[in-house]
Design a protein that fits this description.
This protein is of the alpha/beta class. It has helices at 28-35, 48-57, 73-79, 120-129, 146-157, 203-207, 230-238, 256-259, 303-309, 324-333, 337-376, and strands at 2-3, 9-10, 17-22, 38-45, 62-65, 89-92, 133-138, 160-168, 179-187. The strands form two sheets. It has a seven-stranded mixed beta sheet, sandwiched between helices. Strand 3 (17-22), helix 1 and strand 4 form a beta-alpha-beta unit. Helix 1 crosses helix 11 (337-376) and helix 4 runs parallel beside helix 5.
Length: 397
């Protein structure tokens, strides 16, 4: 305990709120929670490469490397030594590929991906842990799905107050355009979203000072590109710098496959220095998958640059043994830590305000009980005299 300049007693060791990360991936959600002051106790993830990356960066977290459908929530609670109702935050991002518009040809076809049912696991773990707060992220398309409605109904029946909306990570300090559904819920209380940032962070602010790949000491940044056909290399070279696109070239330079389709205009496009990046996907290392060309260099962004555009710190470790495609999948599927951090701070604020209200309510209850006891004994309620040691005058105490 310390006493401040104004005589206010402050606790140096502020008790950290406890959280669990379901569908943890490579750890973007966990990192954001930690940055917001949460102590992440446990995580669940099925993919080996993501587990290796997660463990390398979050060594004190108990990681369950398993299909979450086969993980006993009650057994995990006992292993973490948490009683029902004690967990502060249950957070998760169920796999969303089943709802992706890219996987359904711009939404034209219905998708019956088995992973869609994993959303129910959020409700199953909620019933087992009864956390004080919940945070979930997913793709916007989930809002209109019956599974999301079932989740919301189930949480409300358990006494949770829900708030959900579609937010763009670019408005919360992430140098990337990434629209996502975010849901926050409090057990008996409401949680607000974080306020939007006053200024967006640009591509230049995130990767503008990076050393050229092959010259750095960062193995992730130095991962080489695949060799391209000379025609493709010439096409990339001639695309205008700083935000240019293949559509800026004459029709004679367009590839045959591009002439047959008007969609996916960002393919072989360059990022713009003073704008946010496009959404990082599992194809972020391949310019044929989107606007993933470097603003100036005749290459795609590196895996380290992709991670930075997701707001991961420069020293965040990724397991290289799994190959470039697996790394891109981890980065593309991750939650931007900065986006998580800002909303997690609001969750933390709501939890601390709830705890403060409960303390005040409990204090009044104790005072009222003491007053009733004094009244029964014939004493005046509310008054208390300090005890004085025998033989000493009260004024000298």
């Amino acid at each position: 305990m310390t006493i401040g300049d104004k005589g206010i007693v402050r606790n140096r060791r502020r008790k950290r709120l406890r959280a669990i990360d379901l569908f943890s991936g490579c750890g973007g959600l966990t990192l954001g929670l930690k940055q917001a002051g949460f102590d992440v106790l446990g995580a669940v993830e099925i993919h080996s490469a993501a587990v290796r990356t997660y463990k390398a960066n979050h060594r004190r977290v108990l990681v369950k490397h398993a299909d979450i459908r086969k993980v006993s929530a009650r057994a995990l609670r006992r292993e973490l030594k948490i009683r029902r109702g004690e967990l502060d935050l249950l957070a998760g991002c169920p796999p969303c590929q089943g709802f992706s518009t890219l996987r359904t040809r711009n939404g034209a076809n219905k998708n019956r991906d088995n992973r869609n049912s994993l959303i129910h696991q959020m409700l199953r773990f909620t019933k087992a842990f009864r956390p004080k707060a919940i945070m979930m992220e997913n793709v916007p398309r989930l809002v209109g799905h019956k599974l999301f409605a079932n989740l919301c109904n189930g949480l409300q029946k358990l006494g949770y107050h829900l708030t959900f909306d579609i937010k763009d990570a670019a408005n919360y300090g992430v140098p990337q355009r990434r629209r996502r559904l975010i849901l926050v819920a409090g057990r008996g209380f409401e949680i607000n979203f974080a306020e939007e940032a006053h200024r967006r962070r640009s591509v230049h602010g995130a990767i503008g000072r990076m050393t050229e790949p092959g010259r750095s000491r960062d193995a992730l940044h130095n991962l080489p590109e695949k060799k391209r056909a000379k025609r493709i290399s010439n096409l990339i070279r001639d695309i205008p710098k700083d935000g240019g696109s293949r559509s800026d070239l004459p029709k004679s330079r367009q590839l045959a496959c591009h002439k047959r389709s008007d969609g996916f205009g960002d393919i072989y496009g360059r990022m713009a220095w003073n704008d946010v990046a496009p959404t990082m996907t599992s194809g972020c290392f391949n310019p044929s998958k989107g606007r993933f060309l470097h603003p100036e260099k005749n290459r795609a962004i590196t895996m380290r640059e992709a991670a930075l555009l997701q707001s991961f710190p420069r020293d965040y470790f990724f397991d290289l043994s799994c190959g470039k495609e697996a790394i891109a999948l981890m980065i593309g599927n991750a939650l931007p830590p900065e986006f998580v951090r800002r909303h997690a701070l609001e969750v933390r604020r709501a939890l601390e305000e709830r705890k403060s209200r409960e303390r005040r309510r409990y204090g009044r209850h104790v005072f009222a009980q003491a007053a009733i006891g004094n009244h029964v004994k014939g004493k005046k309620p509310g008054k208390r005299r300090d005890r004085v040691a025998p033989g000493r005058h009260p004024a000298r105490v």
